[in-house]
Amino acid sequence: MSIVTPNAVNTPDIRMSVPTEAQLADRARIYAMPLDELDPGDPQAFENESMYWKFERLRAEDPVHYTPADKSKYGAYWSVTKWDDIIKIDTDSVRFSNIAGGVALNVPGSNPSVDRLAGPNPTPEQLQAVRERGTPSLLNMDPPQHGLHRGAVSEAVSPANLAVLEELVRERIGKILDDLPIGEEFDWVDRVSIELTAMTLATLFNYPQERRRELTFWSDVMTTDPGPGQVVETREEKDAAQRDFLAMIGRLYEERGAAEPAMDFMSLMAHSPQSKDFTPAEIYGDGVILLVGGNDTTRNTLTGSVFALDRNPEQFEKLKNNPKLIPSMVAETIRWQTPLSHMMRKANEDVEIGGKLIKKGDKVAMWYVSGNRDDSKLENPDDYIIDRKNPRQHLSFGFGVHRCLGNRVAELQLRLTWEEILKRFPEIKVIGNPVRALNHFAKGYESMTVVIPSRY
Amino acid sequence: MAKITFNLEDGSAQTIDAEDGEFLMQEAVNNAVPGIDGDCGGVASCATCHVYVEPEWLAATGARTEMEEAMLDGTFGVESNSRLCCQIQVSEKIDGLVVQVAGT
Fold first, then answer.
1. Cβ–Cβ of B39/A397 closer than 8 Å?
2. A274 and B CB contact within 8 Å
3. Is the predicted pLDDT of residue A4 greater than 60, yes or no?
4. Cβ-defined contact of A159 to B70 (cutoff 8 Å)
C-alpha cells in the first residue's frame, strides 16, 4: 500500500530561520497527518525537504517512532531521531548489528545483485535470507570480521597518504575552477562537484582518469531505486550495471594482486594478509561501499556549501574576511547537509530506547539528518553558522567502529576547493533553486545552476 | 593538576596543565592541541584523539577499554602503545606524561 501523500506545495528553497509560506503550509500538512502514517523514509519528502518537518514533529512527539509494515514500502522499521539515542545505538555494535540491518532503508528485493547471491533458481527461503543480509561488505559486518575488512583498506585514506594526495587534489581543483565560464550559467554539480570527486575516486581506485565518470555512474546506480527518469530505469538495467562493476572489481583485484603493492584500495586489499579469506561477494561489496562512500557524499556536500553560502550571504562575507574559517565552514556544511541521511541497524536482542521497546530482529533507522537538527543538543540547529562552537561535533560521519572511513578525504577536498575558490572568485551566484535528488539515503542535488560574475 | 606534553605532528611540542579527574582528550581540546579533535565527545567512538604513549608511561596510563580496543581495530597506524586519549583520566599518577599525537 502506498502512503505517499501528494505534495500540496513544493518547498524547494533552503530552510531559513523564518520559513516561507509554502514551507509553513507543508509543515501544517505534516502536523495534520496521523502519526503512524508518517513514513520518514518516503523519498519524495527528501526531494522537497519536507522531511525536516516530519523529523521536527517526531523529535517533539515521538522521538523513537515505529512505522508499521502496511504504512511503508520498506516494511516495518523504527526511526530514531534524537542525537543522544542515535549515538547510543551507533556505538553499540553488541546489541545492534550491521549484519542484516542493511546499510540504507531498502525496498526488499529491489537490489538485483543481492538476489544473485542466492544462486540460480533460489527457493523463496534462500532469496529471503540473502535479501535480509544484503551484499556483504565492511559496512554490514560486525566485529571482529569488520575490522579485518576495514583494516585492509584504511591506509589508502591515512593522514600520511592524504598528505601525498593534497597537492594533486589542489592542482586538479585549480584547473577545474580555471576552466569555468565567467558571466555564463552552468551546472555546478556536473562541472565541479562530480568532476573533482570522480578524479579523487579514480586515484583512490587507481582507475584510468579518462574513464572516471564510469565510477560516478556505478555509484549512482548503487544508490538508486530503478524508475522513470532515474539513472537506471529498470531492474534489468540496474542488474547489468552491477554486473559490470562486479567484473571490474574482480579484474582490479586480480591485476593489483599480481602487481607491486601500492596505496590504492584494491591493491591494499589484494596484498592484505587477511584478504585470502575474503569471498568474491565480499570484495565486490567492499568495492561498492568504498565507491559510494567516496562519491555522492562529498559531491553533495560540495554543492551544498555553495548553496548554503549563497543563501546566507553574511556567512559568505565572514568566510571571505577570514579564510581561516574554511575548516570550520566545512564541518558546519557537513552537519547542515548531512549527505547520508541515515544508517540501518538490526536489534540483536530486545532493547529499550527512549521508552520504546525495540524487539529482537527489528530494523532501526538512525536518522543522522534529524539528530543534526536536534535543538536539545545544538543551538539554532536549522541555521547555517560557519563559526559555530564545536562545529566538528555532528553526526554526519556516524560513530563507533563503522564511523566514516574517508572523512579526512572529504574534508580535504572541501577545504582545498574553498581555498582555491576564495583566491579566484568574489562571488558564486545560485540561479533559482537546485534540483534535489529523489533519494532518502544519499541526500543531495541532481543539478544546481550558478553564475560566476567575475574573477579577481 | 598534571603537566602533559604532546609531541605534535610538525615536530614541535605543546605542554598543557590538565585538571585531575578530567579526561585527557577534553583537556587537549580545551588547549587547542593540534591533531586532537575529539569529534565523538569522549566515548571512544571516532579515534580522532589517537596518541602514542611513551613506553615508560604505559603502566601509569592503564589498559585500553573494550570499546577503545574495537575502535583501534579499524584505525590506521595503530601500535602497541596506541591509546585514545579520551579514555585516559588525568591524575597525579600521569604528571609529566609525554605522548605523540598520531594525527587523525
1. yes
2. no
3. no
4. no
